[in-house]
């Protein structure tokens, strides 16, 4: 009697493990193991030709912390995240509220918001590069026509290059985040809104007191995604600015690519990758605790 | 509360929504305009400018886009097939089997949502060199096949399926894999559609990893091909580059316009869970 349940549970274990095996092998091979070897390699020198890598302790990290380019890129990424995430989220909420409402030409409006999401970032960058072209790009034409501004090279100027890249990011991401807010809005019971309106609350009050708090779990989800994306997506940089001018629009992952695959300093790239992973983890944990206290779960 | 202030409010909102929508559509409309008109009109808006397909023809001839498209289609199919297969098995295991180490393994799967292959480019490139897979299409696909997001999404779906259905099929003598095939997969079809759309659009658009791991015409997907094409400073006309840009996004854009509702719903479905 006592052997039988353990037999079936043993069989269940084996089934469970076998079903999991193929996915786990690949997951470990391309995510967990590389994450660990990145950490290990960051303590070694870059192997060159016949010269094997040798243990150098924290030398790569020393170099990183005293590298002005690293700090420039680090702050670029911070400003990039700070500049794009709140704007994208605010726009996404506005878009979702509008599209969720009865609105003339709603399907066109929704399509316009969402279309950038389906396009490849690299293609989007091409379109925007043309948009920004000094002189005859549409951007200059519009500002020239409306305000009489002279032609300006937004992507070639250290003061504006990062902002120009951020505009493209917001354009690409806001529509994507809108979808999640749209889903959340449709799950809010109408009775709550109606009750508030009967009490005499205006649209703003209803939004700030009812809708916005109820959207908090979505905001948490979207902001975690947005933070990860702000460190993960650098495709447009390749087309728009190639990190320049003078590192003004370089982001961390782009720097890692450059160090690893243009200068072939893989050990230094490994320590930069560790820095990126640490930043991501801290942000994810921090965000979770920060927003968690404000989230209104049902 | 009175009617006039209400309609005033509505008017402002409609106006805001439309201004934003036009701003959002403008870059794309502009690209379409230049791609379908001769180069002379790229900054010169004449409503009666002659339409032409010449830019597309030029772009198509200037670079091996046919081959790039084929590569992307192979890549996207490979990733999707692999993801469906591996993620289904793993999700079924997490959803309906109890075994030691399940929670830890699941946490490790979820960790991939944060520590993504996109970031681990240096080590993954070394692995591909070790496997002698550099400059092959499988090398682009492999890191993404075991998708933490896919496993999570399918597990959530499988867990909503009533156990009674599962047990009924077992009593009729179906094996665990038979139950998966006959009960779970058919009931999870909407999730597969949603995940499929997301996966295809994601990998069609992916750029950095394919850029690193490919270096020949036979393996490059369209995104990398487009980058190489438009990076040549040899005075390729803007209208031709824009035509190439539209071409590479074309299939996805057309699919999106045709299946707009499914697209939006599938992204929503994926987001809720």
From TrEMBL, chain B:
PANTHER family per UniProt: ABC TRANSPORTER PERMEASE PROTEIN MG189-RELATED-RELATED, LACTOSE TRANSPORT SYSTEM PERMEASE PROTEIN LACG
Residues of the ABC transmembrane type-1 domain: 69-259
Key word Cell membrane present: yes
Residue stretches spanning the membrane: 12-33, 68-92, 104-125, 137-154, 240-259
Pfam families: BPD_transp_1
Source species, domain of life: Bacteria
GO CC terms in record: plasma membrane
Record SUPFAM superfamilies: MetI-like
Name of the protein described by the UniProt record: Carbohydrate ABC transporter permease
Subcellular location: Cell membrane
UniProt keyword list: Cell membrane, Membrane, Transmembrane, Transmembrane helix, Transport
GO BP annotation list: transmembrane transport
Bilayer disposition of the protein: Multi-pass membrane protein
Family: Belongs to the binding-protein-dependent transport system permease family.
């Amino acid at each position: 009697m006592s052997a039988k349940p353990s037999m079936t549970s043993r069989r269940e274990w084996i089934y469970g493990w076998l079903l999991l095996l193929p996915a786990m092998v690949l997951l470990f091979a391309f995510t967990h193991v590389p994450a660990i070897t990145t950490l290990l390699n960051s303590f070694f020198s870059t192997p060159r030709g016949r010269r094997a890598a040798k243990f150098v302790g924290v030398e790569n990290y020393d170099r990183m912390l005293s590298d002005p380019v690293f700090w420039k890129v680090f702050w670029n990424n911070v400003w990039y995240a700070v500049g794009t995430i709140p704007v994208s989220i605010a726009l996404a909420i506005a878009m979702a509220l509008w599209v969720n409402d009865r609105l003339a030409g709603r399907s066109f409006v929704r399509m316009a918001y969402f279309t950038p999401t389906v396009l490849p970032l690299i293609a989007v960058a091409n379109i925007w590069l043309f948009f920004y072209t000094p002189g005859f790009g549409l951007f200059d034409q519009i500002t020239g026509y409306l305000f009489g501004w002279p032609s300006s090279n937004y992507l070639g100027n250290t003061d504006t290059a990062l902002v120009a890249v951020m505009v493209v990011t917001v354009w690409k991401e806001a529509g994507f985040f809108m979808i999640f807010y749209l889903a959340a809005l449709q799950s809010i019971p109408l009775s709550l809104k109606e009750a508030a309106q009967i009490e005499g609350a205006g649209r703003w009050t209803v939004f700030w007191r009812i809708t916005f708090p109820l959207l908090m779990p979505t905001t948490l989800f979207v902001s975690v995604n947005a933070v990860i994306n702000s460190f993960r997506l650098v495709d447009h940089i390749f087309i728009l600015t190639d990190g320049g001018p003078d590192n003004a629009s370089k982001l961390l992952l782009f720097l890692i690519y450059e160090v690893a695959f243009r200068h072939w300093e893989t050990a230094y790239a490994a320590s930069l990758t560790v820095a990126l992973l640490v930043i991501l983890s801290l942000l994810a944990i921090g965000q979770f605790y920060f927003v968690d206290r404000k989230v209104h779960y049902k | 509360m009175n009617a006039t202030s209400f309609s005033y409010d509505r008017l402002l909102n409609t106006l805001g929504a439309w201004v934003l929508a036009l701003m959002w559509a403008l870059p794309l409309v502009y690209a379409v305009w230049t791609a379908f008109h001769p180069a002379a009109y790229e900054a010169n808006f004449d409503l009666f400018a002659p339409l032409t397909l010449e830019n597309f023809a030029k772009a198509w001839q200037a670079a091996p886009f046919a081959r790039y498209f084929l590569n992307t289609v192979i890549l996207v199919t490979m990733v999707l097939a692999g993801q469906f297969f591996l993620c289904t098995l793993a999700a079924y295991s997490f959803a309906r089997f109890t075994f030691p180490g399940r929670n830890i393994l699941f946490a490790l799967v979820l960790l991939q949502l944060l520590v993504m292959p996109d970031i681990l480019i240096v080590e993954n490139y070394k692995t591909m060199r070790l496997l002698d897979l550099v400059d092959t299409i499988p090398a682009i696909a492999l890191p993404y096949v075991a998708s933490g997001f896919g496993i999570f999404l399918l597990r959530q779906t499988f867990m909503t399926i009533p156990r009674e259905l599962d047990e009924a099929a077992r009593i009729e003598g179906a094996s665990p894999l038979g139950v998966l095939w006959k009960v779970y997969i058919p009931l999870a079809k909407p999730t597969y559609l949603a995940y499929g759309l997301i996966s295809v659009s994601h990998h069609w658009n992916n750029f950095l990893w394919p850029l690193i791991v490919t270096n020949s015409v036979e393996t490059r997907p369209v995104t990398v091909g487009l980058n190489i094409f438009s990076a040549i400073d040899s005075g390729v006309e803007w209208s031709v580059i824009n035509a190439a840009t539209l071409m590479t996004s074309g299939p996805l854009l057309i699919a999106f316009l045709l299946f707009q509702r499914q697209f939006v719903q599938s992204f929503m479905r994926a987001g809720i869970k």
